[in-house]
Prior knowledge:
Layout: H1 2-11, H2 21-34, H3 38-48, H4 50-53, H5 64-67, H6 71-90, H7 97-113, H8 118-136, H9 146-164
Helix pairs in contact: 2-9, 3-6, 3-8, 7-9, 8-9
The structure holds protoporphyrin IX containing FE (HEM).
Amino acid sequence: MKLLIVLIIYSTSAFAGPLSPNEANFVKSVWDHVRHNETDMFCSILNQFPDIQAKFPQFEGKDLNSIRNTTEFITQAVRTFTFFSNIIDLSDNPVNIPTITILLKNLGVSHRRYGVTTAQMNEFNYGIVSYLNVSFNTNPNNSWNDVVAAAWTNALDNIFGSVFQNL
Ligand code: HEM
């Protein structure tokens, strides 16, 4: 319920429509399923979008299979998705809204310096959803369906909407 409140408040910034309590629960339960697959998720997104990989000088032009187990790669994957997990976890409590706002603003500012574009953030957003879609369905008790997808679209629009304002 609290996640719902935070996401509704974000949605008043016209980033996305409000989430129902069920949608808010879907977002959390799906994320709990994948939150520790950092390297796998990062690899999947870079594989789909080589232009994102090319923004990392240390990974540019390298075969993903040859770098995915390196400390550098794992470190960046964990940094990226721990950030994501923090936002989702903080969303449980409306008192954290100022913190979330600052974190997303800082992410936009740092990534503007790296030359990351809105189009690339949209690719990243798309890459997360397609990873979740496949991964969530590997467990026979789970099912990625239109309702789950809509919840994620709203949640990600709210998150990336804040980043875009500072990119
Ligand atoms: C859209 C494509 C993206 C590109 C091309 C990109 C690129 C980069 C680059 C080049 C760095 C610096 C790496 C280094 O210091 O060696 C970085 C850092 C980082 N990225 Fe990304 N990034 C992207 C999306 C994201 C997203 C969506 C998140 C979070 C959900 C994220 C989280 C982070 C974090 C936490 C850091 C370290 C702290 C910072 O520099 O702000 N990145 N990213």
